[in-house]
Amino acid sequence: MAGSGNQFRIDRKDLEKLNIKAEGGKNGKKGAAKKVGVGTIIFRSICAVIAVLYFAMIIFGKFLTFIPKDFLGSINPFSGVENPNAWLRFAGLAIVILSASFVLQFLLNSLVKIKNVTKKFSIAFVELLASLVKYASYIVLIFLLLSACGINTGEILAGLGILALIIGLGVTSLIEDIVAGIFIIVERLFDVGDIIVLDGFRGTVVSIGIRSTKIADVGNDILTVRNSSISSLVNLTDRMSCVATTIPLAPQESITHAEEVIKNANIEQIRERFPKIQSGPIYLGLYDITKKGVQLIMFIAPCKEEDRYDVERIMFHELKVIFESN
């Protein structure tokens, strides 16, 4: 079952197919996902132009006689000029730090799409690094701004250390969540995109934060759990799943005849048409006999967990066709 109380044998991939059809195909879906607001595009364009002009001025400014050397020395944090203008130096450092932060975040977010990287380093770990780079750059900028205003940042850092100690004593639950989140990411108990079962809730991990983890079921219902409250779970993605299909035979039907049909049909050919089936299908034999004499025979087919319900439907359809034709 996908999620609590959900009896439909479908998974998130099946729901995505419906969304693709509703939006007019894959191209429509991709286009909708990439849609960005006009304001965001304008803001990013302005930032990009400023960064390009700044670095062009730093590199080629010494060849331009109309630009004052004091101005160039102040905005260039690597110039080594004594007593630079504090605000110009802050502006230059801000552009350098934000540009470096943007490039690092872009590279880290691009690494998430490379399978070889995500196999070695979890998606959550790469996303955590991107977040750390983002917030670290903001913190550095704040201290640079305070320094430009003539405020002693060393005293602020000492005060923050004492304040953090006081706050830490009062928010032990938050610290527990943060520590648990770090262990989840480092030990790779599960990763973004994994299918897990947590307290009877089956879903796909959407995000792993420092404090909480979000899991979405097939209906896109989001379960948010504190990291410290995750004591036991089942990760269905880190191993091969197996679909077990039972087919009923009428009481008067001979099991010998049914097995002869199965042998002649060469059911392993089903895998050639449906690559989601990793191996098999394999016939296991008589599984049960009901009180009314109905015989249940069982077949199994290994597959990936995300393809489980799709393979289950394929098995029912293909086996039914084989028995109906005989």
Order of helices and strands: HHHHHHHHHEEEEEEHHEEH
Largest sheet: 5 strands, antiparallel
Helix content: 40-55%
Instruction: Kindly name the structural category.
Output: alpha+beta
Q: Give the N-to-C terminal Cα separation.
A: 33 Å
How many beta-strand runs?
Answer: 8
Assess the beta-strand content as a share of residues.
15-25%
Provide mean pLDDT, rounded.
75
**What global shape is seen?**
elongated
Write out the strand line-up for the largest beta sheet, numbering strands in chain order: 4-3-2-1-5
State the low-pLDDT regions, or none.
1-7, 25-34
Count of DSSP-assigned helices: 12
The radius of gyration over CA amounts to 30 Å
What can be said about this structure in brief?
With 326 residues, this protein is of the alpha+beta class.
Task: Write up what this structure looks like.
The chain is an alpha+beta fold. Helix content is 53%, strand content 15%. The protein is built from twelve helices and eight strands. A five-stranded antiparallel beta sheet has the order 4-3-2-1-5. It has a three-stranded antiparallel beta sheet with strand order 6-8-7, with helices on one face. 16% of the residues are buried. The model is unreliable at 1-7 and 25-34 (pLDDT under 50).
